[in-house]
Amino acid sequence: MASFVDSISTSDEVDFFPVEFIGEVDYTISVLGASNAGGTLADPVVGIFDSAGNLLAYQDDSWALGYDPMLQFTAPTSGTYYIGVADAIGSTGTYTLVYDQTLPPSPVDTSTFLV
Fold first, then answer.
1. Residue 86 domain flag
2. I want to staple 33 with a disulfide (CB 3.0 to 4.6 A). Which of 44, 52, 67, 96 is the partner?
3. Is 15 exposed, middle or buried (0-12, 13-18, 19+ CB in 10 A)?
4. Using CA atoms, how far apart are residues 9 and 44, in angstroms rounded to an integer?
5. CATH code of residue 9
6. Nearest to 21 by CA among 108, 73, 79
7. Residue 106: per-residue pLDDT
8. 1-29 pLDDT tens trace
9. What gap in Å lies between CA 15 and CA 83, rounded to an integer?
10. Is 112 contained in some domain?
11. Beta strands in the chain, from DSSP E residues, in sequence order
12. Using an 8 Å Cβ cutoff, are 69 and 45 in contact?
């Protein structure tokens, strides 16, 4: 897991973080702002861009984190991608970016279930 604390200091700022993703692997990317005490940014948004600058995925709000986005992304190929962070309403403040490979669910031991 990787975590970065940074800030948006102007209303039109977008912060970009280069990351190396493995092809066909699922990743979870979250930006924690004021909604989850990860910072003071009011309404963060997150996007994933390829090395040519094309937007591949975007998330504003999320069901799990309110105004803070949580994005599930499967890298189509291995290589350098860019995580972009901005604020949907042009506010300024701090945030925490967190990303990691999405782990599959743990298997359930059904031998302990009563039938």
1. yes
2. 44
3. middle
4. 13
5. 2.60.120.380
6. 79
7. 59
8. 889 899 999 999 999 999 999 999 999 99
9. 8
10. no
11. 2-8, 15-21, 26-32, 44-49, 55-59, 70-74, 79-87, 93-101
12. yes
